[in-house]
Amino acid sequence: MIVAGTGLGGGEPGVPAIRLTDLTDCGGCAAKLGADVLATVLAGLGAVAGPPPANLLAGLDPPDDAAVYRLTDELAVIGTVDFFPPLVDDPATYGAIAAANACSDVFAMGGRVLFALSVAAFPEAMAPAIMAAIIEGAAAVVREAGGTLAGGHTIRDPEPKFGLAVIGAAHPDRLLRKGAARPGDLLLVTKPLGTGLLVSGARQGRVSAADLATAIASMRALNRAASEALVANGVGAATDVTGFGLLGHGLEMARASGARLTFDAATLPALPGALALAAAGLETDGARHNRRFVAPALETTAGVDESLVALAYDPQTSGGLLAAISPERLEGVEAALASAGVSSWRIGRVDASSVPAVRLE
User: Fold this and answer.
1) Catalytic status, residue 26
2) Stretch 261-276: mean pLDDT, rounded?
3) Which residue of 8, 23, 98, 184 has the fewest C-beta atoms within 10 A of its own C-beta?
């Protein structure tokens, strides 16, 4: 729920209420550093750090959704961290979305959540009740994810930021990886797109309460059931769709797999109101960063609606899982997802390509 007027003052007598979203220019995963800039920052880090240990199954080279370290032949530990400025005004909802987004990286690797540590930066003048509500909202989601909020660290910052470092576990032979997509696989996504458009539109008063509530419910929903269904049905290739958008994360998967991901634009699922905002020309800074990153590797066929292109670039906060699934497994996976209450959409395929790329047709 969005609660107007919640912020630093928290409603105390004589203290003007300030909305959380008024304290930042950009919230949620749209605040991520551009993928191309990040690649430049991290370039060469592996050479400086030296060769990774043999038991580091996922790290920086190639990058994946979380780091994974094998402890035994049957147990690997997963580590990830994610945080961002507010994208809604209700403190508990902000904490819940931040937690769902952070836990998603563990689920995107096929793992289960063990515990989490909060990463918080709050204005010193913020009412303690507001800080507590953010953390309590996150703690409830971590419990829902199967883990415990076990501690954290907080600093002062005029712009609030909140998230989690999450520790999980998985069987090392049953991980979901960006680099496991194979030509002939079909692409499935488990949440509709458009959270960046809707959150940005809400800041401008251009989104209905109902459409914003639907977007919030989507962001608040965990990817736990989707991940469990994929792993149980032998799927090996997946990532979660967050700040780099469908095309950005699709390109990461294409590069890691040495293939091309081809998306059928007409099948892309959109949250209510998102396509109307895209058609009206709304675009976030995060989407512009994503265009800069993806454009050199993107082919768009004639006739694709520009609003669908914008949707594919849109930065998602706590988006769904994008999975590459062999045709013989697809119906079983879809049935397992539906049985677990998870929606899914077929949105494309994996093609052989000598140059990793993405395509919208």
Assistant:
1) no
2) 98
3) 184
